[in-house]
Design goal:
Elements lengths: L1 H7 L2 E2 L22 E4 H18 L4 E5 L14 E5 L2 E4 L7 E2 L11 E4 L13 E5 L7 E3 H19 L1 H9 L14 E4 L7 E5 L2 E5 L1 E2 L2 E4 L11 E4 L1
Parallel strand pairs: 1-10
Antiparallel strand pairs: 2-7, 3-6, 3-8, 4-5, 4-7, 9-15, 10-14, 11-12, 11-15, 13-14
Helix pairs in contact: 1-3, 2-3
Keywords: Signal
């Protein structure tokens, strides 16, 4: 379920993260963990970010986020902890579900865990990457950021699949959203109700169809540079 959800989850143009209002806490040892994700999956995404950052988004930062349930605007008493055996490291979690991770050399069974859900976020989806260059309005996304975000997401998905399954699926038609696909694109959700989306660069503009608050961005089209901008309104 986590893998399928990762492969179908869209990117978002959500506003920046809300600051956490309480000091970081950890899940009490022995307490119930509502859900956990392998740290190695997110670490794979961080590696992909580092590999592509210089070329695609040299000023961008990488965050992850829990996808809040529609209608939920802020998490309530959700604690995130990096669990490595008996070693518990608090992970500050913003009220809107955004968080960052420090790179650590951890064993394969280390988990990123939360203490509760109660319908506040989509527990069937792996935390999603969010790549952004600072200084842009919340409703604007940079093409290079989206290209790199796609690579991060694919690296995470391949790690969940395993090498052999990834190869088999690629031969069967592929799951690489970052490669050219007939009539396709990288789906970006505005994270709020929008009526229009447009891709623009140096006087050139392309209106993008919006459906359910999302637009398919042609990130594989080389005629658009990494500095082209997508605007939602």
């Amino acid at each position: 379920m986590l893998l399928l959800a990762l492969l179908t989850a869209a990117a978002t143009a959500h506003a920046g993260p809300t600051e956490a209002t309480e000091p970081p806490r950890v899940i009490v040892p022995g307490a119930k963990i509502a859900i956990g994700w392998p740290y190695a999956v997110l670490a794979e995404g961080m590696d992909a970010f580092d590999d592509g950052r210089h070329d695609l988004a040299p000023r961008a930062g990488l965050r992850f986020r829990l996808l809040l349930t529609p209608g939920v605007t802020a998490l309530d008493n959700v604690v995130m902890t990096l669990v490595d055996g008996d070693r518990l490291t608090p992970v500050p979690l913003a009220l809107d579900g955004f968080f960052t991770l420090a790179r650590q050399d951890l064993p394969g069974d280390a988990e990123l865990a939360v203490n509760r859900n109660v319908g506040q976020f989509d527990a069937n989806r792996t935390p999603q990457p969010d790549v952004r260059t600072p200084g842009l309005p919340d409703n604007v996304r940079r093409m290079g950021d989206l290209r790199l975000e796609c690579r991060v997401k694919m690296a995470m998905a391949r790690h969940l699949f395993g090498f052999m399954q990834s190869a088999a699926i690629s031969l069967a038609g592929g799951t690489d959203w970052c490669a050219p696909r007939k009539g396709g694109g990288y789906s970006v959700n505005a994270g709020r109700p929008v009526a229009h989306a447009a891709l623009a660069e140096e006087g050139r503009a392309l209106a993008l169809a919006v459906k359910a608050g999302a637009a398919a961005i042609p990130i594989a089209d080389p005629s658009w540079s990494d500095d082209a901008l997508v605007t939602f309104d």
